[in-house]
């Protein structure tokens, strides 16, 4: 198998990447098209490309404000996620009474459809006095089950001898977690950061119900609003898509080394 | 533990000179520069000229600024051209406008759409507004 | 037991609903108003509110705007939490259900106290907001369906003028169908397709407003005709499957002969179709002058702590002055007589075609149909429409579909 | 779900720890507490609320009355419910298709070729996207007049008349599924890749000595050892697609007719459009039980370790 040529693999992968990227191109093309985007046949390459749809979007909604809100909510979510999930993941590496129950509980929590929980979730947030606030927006996503398991897995992969040695040295538990385990769970953290960012950044229904004032709205709400009828007729909607997607893609490209390589090769280290 | 304390030796360079800081910083720098440029060029100035069908400047033509609002363009303000057919509109509030010129007896020009990169960007018409008649 | 106690027991959560700051402030002269996807008029609303505050010093106004499909979700969540906005802009028939269940304030006493207010509005539109002899809503902006037709396609098919009857609609559609071209489209959300039924004298319910009356040979015949025309390409399938963007987009492509829709479609189509001008697009009343309204109006929540102030703001926003301003800026009809006159006047010179379109909205307002005040409108609509759709798309024969629809509607009626 | 850690306690059984067992247990619960609290507030209590509500007649507009099983009885004859359930099942059944494709890709990018990190990145790129935007993008791709798919189909003379993908009873659901797979493919691939790299290379070396063919390697080594990863993909993918409210909501709104109505959109509509929160709650409970059952069945099929092993 060492002898087999690699070009068929390249060919297949290039084809797949092409298919995966075409929708991006199509939207990007539409967002800079100078021609009426409803003329048939559609042009593959935009004619008289211009950036004015982006200008339209910028002024159609308070883009900077929504963007800032989205960023703040995402940062809160990410911070809480990394801390809470790391703690829970660490706890799950230990044996204790009721562990089986907790595992089943966590897994079943994944199965509760969020759309059905809006009203009680809203009332609870109201009880906490967090309506229309950044923390209230982020709170339901403060901990995510999948990421807890990702942390658990990477903690499990850390050799026990390392921890025992630290214990003998008399290090307190939190120091062990902080100075030994977290640095070794970097890939889990990268995964967690990216996933919680994605989920928070893309969240749509919760901010819709939760935010009362326009000053608290996030980008997905702006996008959904943009879908409303009149704006559908221009390329501005697609420019908006690009503007909303860009930060996520950028963050992913920045962190992808830690994320993909970390996730795929890190696990084998243990 | 060794590995962790070892990584600290890079100090501030490690924390500042990585792509997670540099890329956002670069983006912020570009945005800041753009903002500076925009705030220095947003007097809402629209400058241009009105000609008749034979290319002669038209004096006293009324040039109207139309501002995009929702589905249509609404009249915002108008000025009269000077003796050389030139006009100067100040206080354009929008990024998406149209201009038209008219003078009784000579007719009305087509509405010229103009798109700007930011609100109230100062702009000079590339081509003059042309009235169909003779001055 | 009151509603909130029950929810709490359901939640097994103790304590009272926390009062956020904006709520606490509500007790003293604060109003909140929720509009339905019209954030583009922010500038206008700001001016209106400033004007209102000048007349009523010390009043604070919180303005909220939500996109159409999400507004009910937002309002109902707020209702459960006890923080419903004082004033809400409602579209279609949703107000009936909310009014019937006691969420909205009966405005009749206010109108009786100030008889001049009601005279400001078009009486037919105002009357369409009456349930159980009580008026719950004041018109904010109005529209009803009309028939758009593509004059180029009519000419090509040798048709001189717009259809005068249901059968002509069907026949004309057939005449224009060729290759990619189809003859007819209608919007179908809410009850906007109902004029097609009304033209044939079909009734949805018996006068008791509880028993289905539509399972007749006539309805069967109508559905059969529609199904046949759809199968043969006379009627575009999107008429029965699309929502808003698809039918308007298809008509804008220039390949569909007619579109039964309300005035807002004109502005959508015009935005997409370079071919639209007074020589190519016709806008006329439906045969028999039937039309289904789709209106927006202001209602006041019963839970409002300042109902009088809320009423004052509703009056303010629909007054001659501000309704006129709204009509001029948005090219829309408001139901306010003076405002619409001024609005039409302005449009007449700027865009004669838009003028023709808007004019249809104020004519034959006595022939509005498909707007029964049903407290369970959403459920009846769903039950009935699903079967109509099956019939016209040929997924069931008309007889079975109508029998199934009758069963479904009966069930909905029994439940409530 | 018992974790594969049978020998774990011993390794830390120093005298120091034995004395501190209670303290240790307290610590564990303290560490779990924040997450548990979040789940309690936003998952468990709302579920309890739904369960209570499902036996009542209630809406925000009127007080609650206990009505026993009426809501559940109604479901039996509710065609829309069954249609939504069927559509949901269809989407779940499409997950294996996506996973199979992702497995192929994972094998390809796991081979020792240059630029494989670039391939991985590009294929994964569709996952971080906002679902609302994905829905808009695909709506545009499927557009009847100027959508790319119709354009290509007509260019290649696959069809003469444009296909109204999202307006056709036949095509709408598959169209949504394709968009969903497009978004999830990269995610599946990464999970499977993790699993692949965890397979000890010694196994392959041994197999090579035994003269095993490529297909032997796949069926005898890769597939069995990947089962936990596949399970993980399936559960995450299933949850993601079945609860992908935004995608369906923006792309088709459940239409045409009920062709793309899935249980989450139906639940949302029942509650917020029809004001039938009581009935919606009953559907939610059934949906929850359904998901648990599917996950349990998948767990049994994949060997019963809840996918935990691949994380080791």
Topology:
The complex is a heterotetramer of chains A (270), B (135), C (416) and D (312).
Chain A: H1 7-32, H2 52-60, H3 63-91, H4 99-109, H5 118-127, H6 134-138, H7 145-156, H8 160-168, H9 173-184, H10 186-202, H11 205-210, H12 219-226, H13 236-269
Helix pairs in contact in A: 1-13, 2-13, 3-7, 3-10, 7-10, 10-13, 12-13
Chain B: H1 2-7, H2 12-16, H3 19-40, E1 46-51, E2 62-69, E3 72-80, E4 86-89, E5 96-103, E6 107-108, E7 112-115, E8 123-124, E9 129-130
Parallel strand pairs in B: 1-8, 1-9
Antiparallel strand pairs in B: 1-4, 2-3, 2-5, 5-6, 5-7
Chain C: H1 3-11, H2 21-24, E1 30-36, H3 42-55, E2 60-66, H4 71-81, E3 87-91, H5 94-100, H6 108-113, H7 115-118, H8 123-127, E4 130-131, E5 134-135, E6 138-141, E7 145-150, H9 151-156, H10 166-176, E8 182-186, H11 194-198, H12 217-231, H13 238-241, H14 245-252, E9 256-262, H15 264-272, E10 281-284, E11 296-300, H16 307-317, H17 320-330, H18 337-350, H19 352-362, H20 377-392, H21 398-415
Parallel strand pairs in C: 1-2, 1-3, 8-9
Antiparallel strand pairs in C: 3-11, 4-5, 6-11, 7-9, 7-10
Helix pairs in contact in C: 14-15, 17-18, 18-19, 20-21
Structural class of chain B: alpha+beta
Percent of residues in helices of chain B:
10-25%
> What's the overall average pLDDT of chain D, rounded?
82
CATH class of the largest domain in chain D: Mainly Alpha
Structural class of chain D: mainly alpha
Structure description:
The complex is a heterotetramer of chains A (270), B (135), C (416) and D (312). By secondary structure, chain A is mostly helical. Chain A has 2 domains: 1-50, no CATH class; 61-269, MetI-like (MetI-like fold), CATH 1.10.3720. In chain A, 70% of the residues lie in helices and 0% in strands. The longest helix of chain A is centred in the C-terminal third of the chain and has 34 residues, at 236-269. The model of chain A is unreliable at 265-270 (pLDDT under 50). The longest helix of chain C has 18 residues, at 398-415. Chain C is globular and about 65 Å long. Chain C starts with a helix and ends with a helix. By secondary structure, chain D is mainly α. The longest helix of chain D has 33 residues, at 21-53. The model of chain D is unreliable at 1-17 and 306-312 (pLDDT under 50). The chains are: A mainly alpha (270), B alpha+beta (135), C alpha/beta (416), D mainly alpha (312). Chains in contact: A-B, A-C, A-D, B-C, C-D.
């Amino acid at each position: 198998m060492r002898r087999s040529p690699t070009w068929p693999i390249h060919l297949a992968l290039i084809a797949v990447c092409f298919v995966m990227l075409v929708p991006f191109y199509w939207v990007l093309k539409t967002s800079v098209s100078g021609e009426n985007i409803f003329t048939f046949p559609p042009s593959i390459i935009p004619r008289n490309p211009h950036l004015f749809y982006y200008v339209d979007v910028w002024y159609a909604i308070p883009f900077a404000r929504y963007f800032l809100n989205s960023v703040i909510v995402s940062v809160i979510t990410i911070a809480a996620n990394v801390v809470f999930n790391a703690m829970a993941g660490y706890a799950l590496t230990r044996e204790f009474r009721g562990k089986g129950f907790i595992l089943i509980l966590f897994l079943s929590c994944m199965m509760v459809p969020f759309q059905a929980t809006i009203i009680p979730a809203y009332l609870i947030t109201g009880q906490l006095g967090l309506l229309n606030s950044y923390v209230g927006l982020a709170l339901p996503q403060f901990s995510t089950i999948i990421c807890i398991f990702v942390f658990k897995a990477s903690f499990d992969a850390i050799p026990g001898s390392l921890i025992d040695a630290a214990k003998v040295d008399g290090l307190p538990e939190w120091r062990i977690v902080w100075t030994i385990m977290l640095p070794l769970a970097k890939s889990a953290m990268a995964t967690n950061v990216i996933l919680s960012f994605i989920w928070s950044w893309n969240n749509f229904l919760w901010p819709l119900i939760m935010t009362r004032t326009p000053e608290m709205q996030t980008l997905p709400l702006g996008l959904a609003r943009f879908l409303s009828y009149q704006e559908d007729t221009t390329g501005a909607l697609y420019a908006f898509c690009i503007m909303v997607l860009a930060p996520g893609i950028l963050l992913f490209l920045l962190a992808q080394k830690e994320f993909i390589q970390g996730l795929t090769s890190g696990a084998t280290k243990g | 533990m060794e590995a962790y304390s070892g990584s600290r030796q890079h100090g501030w360079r490690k924390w500042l000179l990585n792509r997670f800081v540099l890329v956002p910083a670069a983006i912020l720098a570009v945005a800041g520069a753009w903002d500076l440029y925009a705030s220095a060029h947003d007097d809402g100035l629209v400058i241009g000229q009105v000609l008749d069908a034979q290319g002669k400047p038209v004096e006293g033509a009324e040039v109207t600024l139309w501002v995009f609002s929702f589905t249509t363009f609404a009249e915002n303000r108008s000025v009269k051209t000077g003796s050389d057919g030139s006009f100067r509109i100040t206080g354009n509030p929008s990024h998406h406008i149209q201009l038209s010129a008219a003078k009784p007896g000579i007719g009305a020009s087509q509405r010229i759409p103009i798109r700007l990169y930011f609100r109230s960007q100062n702009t000079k018409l590339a081509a003059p507004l042309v009235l169909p008649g003779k001055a | 037991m009151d509603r909130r106690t029950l929810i709490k027991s359901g939640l097994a959560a103790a304590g009272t609903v926390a009062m956020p700051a904006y709520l606490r402030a509500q007790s003293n002269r604060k109003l909140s108003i929720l509009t339905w996807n019209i954030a583009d008029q922010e500038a206008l609303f700001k001016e209106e509110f400033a004007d209102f505050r000048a007349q009523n010093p010390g009043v604070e106004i919180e303005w909220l705007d939500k996109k159409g499909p999400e507004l009910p979700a937002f309002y109902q969540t707020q209702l459960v939490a006890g923080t419903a906005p004082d004033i809400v802009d409602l579209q279609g028939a949703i107000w009936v259900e909310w009014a019937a269940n006691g969420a909205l304030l009966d405005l009749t006493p206010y109108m009786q106290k100030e008889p001049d207010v009601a005279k400001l509005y078009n009486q037919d539109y105002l009357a369409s907001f009456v349930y159980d002899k009580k008026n719950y809503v004041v018109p904010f902006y109005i529209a009803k369906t009309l028939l758009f037709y593509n004059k180029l396609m009519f000419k090509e098919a040798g048709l001189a003028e717009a259809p005068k009857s249901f059968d002509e609609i069907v026949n004309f559609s057939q005449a224009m169908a060729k290759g990619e071209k189809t003859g007819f489209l209608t919007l179908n959300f809410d009850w906007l397709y109902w004029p097609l039924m009304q033209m044939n004298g079909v009734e949805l319910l018996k006068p008791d407003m509880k028993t289905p009356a539509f399972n007749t040979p006539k309805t069967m015949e109508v559905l059969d005709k529609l199904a046949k025309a759809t199968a043969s390409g006379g009627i575009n399938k999107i008429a029965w499957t699309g929502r808003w963007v698809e039918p308007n987009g298809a008509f804008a492509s220039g390949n569909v002969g007619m579109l039964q829709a309300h005035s807002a479609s004109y502005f959508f189509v015009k935005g997409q179709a370079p071919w639209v001008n007074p020589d190519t697009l016709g806008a006329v009343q439906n045969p028999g002058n039937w039309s289904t309204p789709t209106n927006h109006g202001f209602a006041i929540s019963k839970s409002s702590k300042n109902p009088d102030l809320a009423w004052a703001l509703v009056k303010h926003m629909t007054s001659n002055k501000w309704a006129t301003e709204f009509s001029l800026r948005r090219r829309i009809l408001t139901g306010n007589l003076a405002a619409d006159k001024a609005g039409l006047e302005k449009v007449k010179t700027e865009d004669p075609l838009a003028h023709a379109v808007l004019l249809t909205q104020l004519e034959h307002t006595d022939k509005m149909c498909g707007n029964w005040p049903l407290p369970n409108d959403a459920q009846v609509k769903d039950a009935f429409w699903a079967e109509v759709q099956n019939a016209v798309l040929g997924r069931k024969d008309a007889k079975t579909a109508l029998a199934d629809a009758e069963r479904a509607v009966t069930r909905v009626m029994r439940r409530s | 779900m018992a974790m594969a850690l049978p020998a774990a306690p011993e390794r830390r059984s120093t005298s120091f720890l034995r004395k501190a067992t209670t303290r240790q247990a307290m610590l564990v619960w303290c560490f779990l507490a924040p997450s548990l609290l979040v789940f309690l507030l936003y998952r468990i209590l709302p579920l309890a609320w739904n369960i209570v509500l499902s036996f009542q007649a209630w809406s925000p507009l009127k007080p609650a009355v206990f009505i026993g099983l009426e809501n559940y009885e109604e479901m039996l004859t509710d065609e829309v419910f069954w249609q939504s359930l069927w559509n949901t099942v269809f989407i779940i059944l499409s997950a294996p298709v996506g996973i199979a494709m992702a497995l192929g890709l994972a094998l390809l990018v796991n081979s020792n070729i240059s630029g494989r990190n670039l391939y991985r990145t590009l294929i994964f790129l569709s996952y971080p996207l906002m679902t609302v935007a994905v829905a808009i993008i695909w709506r545009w791709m499927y557009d009847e007049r100027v959508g790319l798919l119709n354009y290509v189909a007509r260019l290649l003379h696959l069809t003469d008349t444009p296909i109204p993908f999202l307006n056709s009873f036949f095509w709408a659901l598959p169209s949504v599924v394709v968009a969903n797979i497009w978004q999830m493919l990269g995610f599946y691939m990464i999970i499977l890749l993790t699993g692949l790299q965890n397979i000890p290379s010694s196994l392959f070396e041994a197999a090579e000595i035994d003269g095993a063919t490529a297909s032997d390697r796949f069926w005898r080594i890769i597939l069995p050892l990947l089962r936990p990863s596949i399970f993980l993909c399936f559960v995450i993918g299933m949850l993601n697609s079945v609860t992908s409210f935004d995608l369906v909501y923006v792309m088709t709104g459940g239409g045409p007719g009920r062709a793309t109505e899935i249980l989450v959109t139906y639940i949302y509509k029942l509650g917020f459009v029809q004001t039938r929160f009581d009935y919606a709650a009953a559907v939610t409970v059934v949906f929850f039980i359904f998901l648990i059952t599917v996950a349990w069945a998948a767990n049994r099929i994949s060997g019963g370790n809840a996918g935990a092993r691949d994380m080791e």
